[in-house]
Amino acid sequence: MAVRINCSIQNTLTLFNPPLFSLRYRASPLKLKPQFRFGQNFSREVLFCTCATTDITPSNAEPFVITTPLYYVNAPPHMGSAYTTIAADAIARFQRLLGKKVIFITGTDEHGEKIATAALAQGSTPPDHCNLISQSYKTLWKDLDISYDKFIRTTDSKHETIVKEFYSRVLASGDIYRADYDGLYCVNCEEYKDQKELLDNNCCPVHLKPCVSRNEDNYFFALSKYQKALEETLNKNPNFVQPSFRLNEVHLIYEIWISNELQMVQSWIKSGLRDFSISRASVDWGIPVPDDKSQTIYVWFDALLGYISALSDDQEQPDLLKTVSSGWPASLHLIGKDILRFHAVYWPAMLMSAGLTLPKMVFGHGFLTKYLCP
Ligand SMILES: [Zn+2]
């Protein structure tokens, strides 16, 4: 059966990367052979796949689980979110053509101070604001014919249940402790910053806005405990972070943090990787920390779990281990390179602590730039 590979994807790739990139699949009755061509001569050819599409995947075979980031709803979707999602859609469709069972996960990340601030600026409430923006993502994915299977919102009740259960497992592993933290905070990054990484006037290098001084009593995750295990993971599985040159960036993160550790004497730095705060006392718009309603769970410690909670069956009572058995681990997290630290460092350590399997691959793509998309 001849199957036309979604032409809108091709057109969109054309739109995104006109002079540099052409993508063509040579159809074969036996196997698909992708061909990537880089050069100046770009041709708009219609793509066809003539491979057989009979289901060759045994019913008990592992599904191919692909995820986009859960997009932050502080603002409506933009070209960057469409870029990642279209790429994920192309991969999902390709895997389906190979006869695999695919679970394509996307969704929206809806908690945190930045969301509450964005809602206030619009004269709205956080729930109304999240409903509006989340729906705008769904509308765009419909317009772009994105073939996702699961759309998770971090305000879904099943997600909250899974996050709390996960938090309790990490707590039971002895990896959560309470400590004071005094530091500079970028509200837009939703992250404490080291003075060294800031520009003049304590400006965040990403947002070019001044960080604010904060003193909070927070819960911390003992990331430092997983330094060796993470290094071993990267050494044993060089495909874990792709493209391979990004691996150096992850190693660099380790090295920077290690050197910081040597220079900074702070009680919350144990060794190597720096423990990170996983709760906020000053943010109401979030999932409450189990057994401490005065704090909410840090937005990243909440959002990353969406990759698992998305697999939960809506008709059943949410349960972490049962959900994990429905498709976890992810075959591929497709992300922008700016959130590599969270996916290639924080997330695997969190999973190790909870006794869960790591994703098979994290792919950090580059940004759309003016050069590629004038
Ligand atoms: Zn920032």
UniProtKB/TrEMBL annotation:
GO terms for biological process: methionyl-tRNA aminoacylation. GO terms for molecular function: ATP binding; methionine-tRNA ligase activity. One of its GO terms (cellular component) is chloroplast stroma. InterPro entries: Met-tRNA_synth_2, Methionyl/Leucyl_tRNA_Synth, MetRS_core, Rossmann-like_a/b/a_fold. Residues 65-203 form the Methionyl/Leucyl tRNA synthetase domain. It holds the Pfam family tRNA-synt_1g. Keywords: Aminoacyl-tRNA synthetase, ATP-binding, Ligase, Nucleotide-binding, Protein biosynthesis. It comes from the Eukaryota. PANTHER family: METHIONINE--TRNA LIGASE, MITOCHONDRIAL, METHIONYL-TRNA SYNTHETASE. Belongs to the class-I aminoacyl-tRNA synthetase family. This is Methionyl/Leucyl tRNA synthetase domain-containing protein. It comes from Sphenostylis stenocarpa.
